[in-house]
Write a structure and sequence with these properties.
Layout lengths: L5 H14 L4 H8 L3 H13 L3 E5 L4 E4 L1
Antiparallel strand pairs: 1-2
Helix pairs in contact: 1-3, 2-3
Length: 64
């Protein structure tokens, strides 16, 4: 992982499973990170099988 840390990925995993939804904006607000960082974290969660691919233009992802 380049710009993101393992603890950020773990925190994001806890957030998306607790809220049963995953969007960059939600992570941006709750984790207090930049939007692009939130996107990168969600991409990492997708690689790990925590969330599905992006649905539509708003960045919504299904929590698996």
């Amino acid at each position: 992982m380049s710009m993101i840390h393992e603890d950020q990925v773990q925190q994001a995993k806890e957030i998306v499973t607790a809220h049963n939804r995953a969007t960059p904006t939600m992570l941006e607000r709750l984790m207090k990170v930049h939007y692009q960082t939130a996107v990168t974290i969600l991409e990492e969660l997708e690689k790990l099988g925590v969330v599905g691919p992006e649905i539509g233009k708003l960045g919504l992802r299904a929590v698996l």
